[in-house]
Amino acid sequence: MQCALYDAGRCRSCTWVEQPIAGQLSTKMTDLRQLLTGMAVDEWREPVSGPEAGFRNKAKMVVSGSVERPIFGTAPRDGQAQDLTDCPLYPASFPPVFNALKPFIARAGLTPYNVARRRGELKYILLTESQQDGAMMLRFVLRSEAKLAQLRAALPALQAQLPQLRVISVNIQPVHMAIMEGEQEIFLTDQQALAENFNGVPLWIRPQSFFQTNPSVASQLYACAREWVRELPVNHMWDLFCGVGGFGLHCATPQMTLTGIEIAPEAIACARQSARALGLTRHYFQALDSTNFATAQASIPELVLVNPPRRGIGEALCDYLGRMAPDWIIYSSCNAATMAKDIRCLSGYRIRRVQLFDMFPHTAHYEVLTLLEKEN
């Protein structure tokens, strides 16, 4: 992929951008095989990839510069901020929104936050797009509520200019640290979630709920998990670290009992809304810590699906699963190194299938789905 930002030395986020996609996939597969060295794998499936440009459904922009000339991009380094609004990873629908937001910031008096001086209000612009209908969610991350009234007063003109902005909110992040968002979310629109749909499964995107940033590959990841689960005689499954429920909702049938656990209440609200839309009556989504929930249970279902953050599922959950020994474990990971470490701790299982999903082209990162089966 050709990237003018990379060529000019303005951005180095995509460290592999000079390599062809085929070469990137080959290197990632080599890395995954090395991480699983010594563990027998029954089936290595072909890696899955998607578009190499325009695939992101989300932009997280640090706002710097001045209120009259704001810059959307990375945090200033050596006093120099880089505008990344023309990043080729964003779809063509994003630049017009960025272009409209810059004069809006001046009208609303949202002075960009200056880290060195600890002054200003606007820290980040977060933009998310639904692939279902092109609707967007816009979030302003502010230091305080000082400019909230001015923002509300200026908002109708922006909404008239950009009717695709269906969800608009303000997140208050008062801490002087590199933290993306705070706990307080103030909605400026009646609508509070974007409707999305992967593979016929309705999903919802709300502020402060994790959602995959590469919809093309994520939809294939969920479809693959559904294919694997539907081949198994499963009456009850746990979906741990479930997020908005993408895995569990794809895999569940009306006859199956689905228990989804996620610590973020906003994500659980999305999952419950999707389950209702699908007509699922045997679903139980709860906002709890996945490890604490699981290890407190006296029994376990036939299948446990885990989709942990980069740190992996950890020793406590590994020990519990090893002792309780569900028939199958499906492990979805964005960090194959911690996944491999966890699998080595799960004695009594063999790896039935492994499939790599290139969720993050032009970088060393990837997603991997692994099916583990209890040995007799």
UniProtKB/TrEMBL annotation:
<dbReference type="InterPro" id="IPR030391">
    <property type="entry name" value="MeTrfase_TrmA_CS"/>
</dbReference>
<dbReference type="InterPro" id="IPR010280">
    <property type="entry name" value="U5_MeTrfase_fam"/>
</dbReference>
<comment type="similarity">
    <text>Belongs to the class I-like SAM-binding methyltransferase superfamily. RNA M5U methyltransferase family. RlmC subfamily.</text>
</comment>
<keyword id="KW-0411">Iron-sulfur</keyword>
<keyword id="KW-0004">4Fe-4S</keyword>
<comment type="function">
    <text>Catalyzes the formation of 5-methyl-uridine at position 747 (m5U747) in 23S rRNA.</text>
</comment>
<keyword id="KW-0408">Iron</keyword>
<keyword id="KW-0489">Methyltransferase</keyword>
<dbReference type="InterPro" id="IPR029063">
    <property type="entry name" value="SAM-dependent_MTases_sf"/>
</dbReference>
<keyword id="KW-0479">Metal-binding</keyword>
<dbReference type="GO" id="GO:0070475">
    <property type="term" value="P:rRNA base methylation"/>
</dbReference>
<feature type="active site" description="Nucleophile">
    <location>
        <position position="334"/>
    </location>
</feature>
<feature type="binding site">
    <location>
        <position position="307"/>
    </location>
    <ligand>
        <name>S-adenosyl-L-methionine</name>
    </ligand>
</feature>
<feature type="binding site">
    <location>
        <position position="262"/>
    </location>
    <ligand>
        <name>S-adenosyl-L-methionine</name>
    </ligand>
</feature>
<dbReference type="GO" id="GO:0005506">
    <property type="term" value="F:iron ion binding"/>
</dbReference>
<feature type="binding site">
    <location>
        <position position="87"/>
    </location>
    <ligand>
        <name>[4Fe-4S] cluster</name>
    </ligand>
</feature>
<feature type="binding site">
    <location>
        <position position="11"/>
    </location>
    <ligand>
        <name>[4Fe-4S] cluster</name>
    </ligand>
</feature>
<keyword id="KW-0808">Transferase</keyword>
<dbReference type="InterPro" id="IPR011825">
    <property type="entry name" value="23SrRNA_MeTrfase_RlmC"/>
</dbReference>
<dbReference type="GO" id="GO:0051539">
    <property type="term" value="F:4 iron, 4 sulfur cluster binding"/>
</dbReference>
<dbReference type="Pfam" id="PF05958">
    <property type="entry name" value="tRNA_U5-meth_tr"/>
</dbReference>
<protein>
    <recommendedName>
        <fullName>23S rRNA (uracil(747)-C(5))-methyltransferase RlmC</fullName>
        <ecNumber>2.1.1.189</ecNumber>
    </recommendedName>
</protein>
<dbReference type="InterPro" id="IPR030390">
    <property type="entry name" value="MeTrfase_TrmA_AS"/>
</dbReference>
<keyword id="KW-0949">S-adenosyl-L-methionine</keyword>
<feature type="binding site">
    <location>
        <position position="241"/>
    </location>
    <ligand>
        <name>S-adenosyl-L-methionine</name>
    </ligand>
</feature>
<feature type="active site">
    <location>
        <position position="334"/>
    </location>
</feature>
<dbReference type="GO" id="GO:0070041">
    <property type="term" value="F:rRNA (uridine-C5-)-methyltransferase activity"/>
</dbReference>
<keyword id="KW-0698">rRNA processing</keyword>
<feature type="binding site">
    <location>
        <position position="14"/>
    </location>
    <ligand>
        <name>[4Fe-4S] cluster</name>
    </ligand>
</feature>
<feature type="binding site">
    <location>
        <position position="212"/>
    </location>
    <ligand>
        <name>S-adenosyl-L-methionine</name>
    </ligand>
</feature>
<feature type="binding site">
    <location>
        <position position="3"/>
    </location>
    <ligand>
        <name>[4Fe-4S] cluster</name>
    </ligand>
</feature>
